[in-house]
Amino acid sequence: MKQWLLDRTGDDxxxxxxxxxxxxxxxxxVDSLIETKEFGLWERILQFLKSNSAGLGDLxxxxxxxxxxxxxxxxxxxxxxxxxxxDSIRQLAKISPDWVDYFMKLxxxxxxxxVLPQVYGGxxxxxxxxxxxxxxxxxxxxxxxxxxxxxxxxxxxxxxAIEIFDFLYNTDDPDFLKSEQFxxxxxxxxxxxxxxxxxxxxxxxxxxxxxxxxxxIKMRLYFDNPAKEKIYDIMIEWADFQCTTRTAAYFxxxxxxxxxxxxxxxxxxxxxxxxxxxxxxISMEIKLRIDARNPALPESYNNLxxxxxxxxxxxxxxxxxxxxxxxxxxxxxxxxxALNFKLLAYYPNKMRLAITYKNLGxxxxxxxxxxxxxxxxxxxxxxxxxxxxxxxxxxxEIRQLIExxxxxxxxxx
Length: 413
Fold this sequence. Notes:
The protein is mostly helical. The protein has helices at 2-6, 18-35, 39-51, 58-75, 78-95, 98-108, 116-119, 126-148, 154-169, 174-177, 180-202, 206-224, 234-237, 245-262, 271-290, 297-311, 320-340, 350-366, 370-385, 393-411. The radius of gyration is 23 Å and the shape is globular. The chain starts with a helix and ends with a helix.
């Protein structure tokens, strides 16, 4: 696909189906981009396409914007990704302004919903499905970033994406049912279940979050293993299934939910954190099964390091000091694995590197090694300032931690 694009000039761009290109590119995946070190090349290709898109059709331009946003998201540059997705939505609104009124009515009163085909009646034939597919795609991607960065519009973005994909999933159009877009929608719907789980985790509605997370894992296992008939216990039976990086990601979500339960101030039990550890271990085992050099492994190492760290304050008893030291070493072992993972040398997602620095800062803080804690927090701030403004939530979060640790250090003098 790369050479296919490089061989074309601006005059040839009109011959490319950019919706198909978007599907191919977003399926290419972060693993392939990391393995081949092609982030920079693809960025130049997409910027070229974006700069030369004036003569293209409206939907083609939106597809290119979605690709630019997707690449920025993989880099961890959520601000740039969000800007491109917002631009996509504005472009789509110009094509069919009626969708704005439709979704406003939909979000305000579910009992009086207009029918989607009536709203988009001006779009004939395949354009109707292409338009809805692109609209669903951009809301799906916007929702994922909104959840990750905890933007207040995450609920709305997920609701819109689910509404669109449910409609497309239940269509009886024979041509669309055979299309590559329809195959992708099946996977998007699973992703949205996982998104709802993440959203409810941030809201601390843990029972709902657990239900959606477990369902997304089951849906993914069935999707990748259509011959399997019934799943009773995902924590045990996953090993008998063909698993993908998405399965690993969904187990990671479930682990994060249990970790959220364990992080609550009133929690005195190890059980939710131990369950989180098992979820993170399963996620890690799946990644290792796929590729021993899997570029997503640092995420598993970070999570396991954090989980063992959270067990430290819960240790009680006469031998508490020894157990705490053991947990500290276990936590640091995983954080160091994340930091020293050989792929990090060229891994472009700086957000993940910042998380490792932040986690190490928190680990040393728990052990009252404040000087080392501040060093890692400062490193985390430095990385995040490359991605976000000084007054952003991401930077201010670390600034607050630095302030707290500085006060704790002064109180010990």
